[in-house]
Design the sequence.
């Protein structure tokens, strides 16, 4: 029997990343075409400036095939990183959903590494950074966050904040997401694990940011992030509320 390759949705949350989005989408398309003819790209514009929104629309128009393959989901008001991911997951229609950020800190061509680890039993293939290429203050903040998450949630992955993931879309029949901030990554991994799906990991390269600005890993936001994590812990560990 001939093997039918899985269809793939590529999803990018977009916030004023007009300088890098075009090359990232082109590389992602080049990569998925090697594995399937059934693919789509979903870009979630999460309240970007009008100039960036117009630039995104122009880039997508140039890249689109027959006006159907690449679609933009627009939030008029910023909903946060979690809100952007939730919209992207809801709009994805293919068997597998790959997502990464638009700031070019990851190479979409390394999606190939994730696909090699995706089996019928796997719900999530999670990337982990070989080496973090960020300014020292972000490296320190990232490590503090990592140790906090590891201690509180005990997740079965070594790099929860590596936003380079391949997810089997069918997991969302059970896994409902509600976080609007970057803590959605903890919610996502924790729920996929709690529902018994297999999780695999793959080392990926991490590059210096060429555009945009991190909204998550900075010292001013650490207290707010800790508060969000506590609320999520209470919901998942104390109330044991995995669906609502």
Sequence:
């Amino acid at each position: 029997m001939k093997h039918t390759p899985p269809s793939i949705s590529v999803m990018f949350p977009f916030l004023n990343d007009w300088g890098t989005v075009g090359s990232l989408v082109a590389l992602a398309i080049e990569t998925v075409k090697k594995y399937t003819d059934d693919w789509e790209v979903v870009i979630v514009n999460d309240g970007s400036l009008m100039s960036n929104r117009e630039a995104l629309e122009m880039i997508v128009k140039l890249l689109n095939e027959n006006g159907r393959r690449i679609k933009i989901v627009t939030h008029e008001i910023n909903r946060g990183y979690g809100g952007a991911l939730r919209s992207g997951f809801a709009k994805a229609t293919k068997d597998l959903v790959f997502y990464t950020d638009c700031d070019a800190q990851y190479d979409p061509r390394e999606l190939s590494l994730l696909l090699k680890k995706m089996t019928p039993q796997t719900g999530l293939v999670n990337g982990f950074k070989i080496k973090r290429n960020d300014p020292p203050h972000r490296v320190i903040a990232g490590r503090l966050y990592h140790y906090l998450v590891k201690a509180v949630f005990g997740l079965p992955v070594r790099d929860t904040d590596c936003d380079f993931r391949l997810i089997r879309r069918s997991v969302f029949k059970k896994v409902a997401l509600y976080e609007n901030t970057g803590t959605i990554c903890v919610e996502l991994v924790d729920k996929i694990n709690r529902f018994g799906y297999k999780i695999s990991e793959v080392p990926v390269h991490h590059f210096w940011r060429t555009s945009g600005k991190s909204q998550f890993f900075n010292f001013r936001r650490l207290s707010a992030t800790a508060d969000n994590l506590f609320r999520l812990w209470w919901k998942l560990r104390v109330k044991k509320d995995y669906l609502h």
